[in-house]
Amino acid sequence: MSKNADVILLVEDNAADAELTTMVLARYGFQHLVTHVSDGQQAMDYLYRRNEFADRTGALPALILLDLKMPLLDGIGVLEQVKGSELLHNIPVVVLTSSTEPSDLLKAYNAGTNAYIAKPTDFSQFLASMKHVCEFWLKINQTAPQPSIASARSTGFGDLL
Known about the structure:
161 residues; alpha/beta
């Protein structure tokens, strides 16, 4: 497990997909680490400890699993904000979406995604994909140390360190 954080932030607006992903992560022992939010705005609130997450404690997530097509703030918008933030840009973001559109892949990589996974429709393939994602990003990969969120203040214009 990453020494920087202890949470997987799952950003998924489809309740059934979120439940399935959480169930699969539980199968590999990560169930107590998953925090689910249902849109991009909630994800940014979680990351910056705003609104309903103002009292959140703990480190930044070790990994963000991000859907693309969501209300309020879509996945590309989240990616642009995360990767454009001095505070958040080192958090690995894996796009986990049903889209295989080349334009979505291009937009996601241009916005800074670390990986792009089209959700397999076969359950056993989905299991294997999630196992590999967690093993690589949470056990094998060495991430940069995260700055303390207490040392940053978020404004409407980005974060101030």
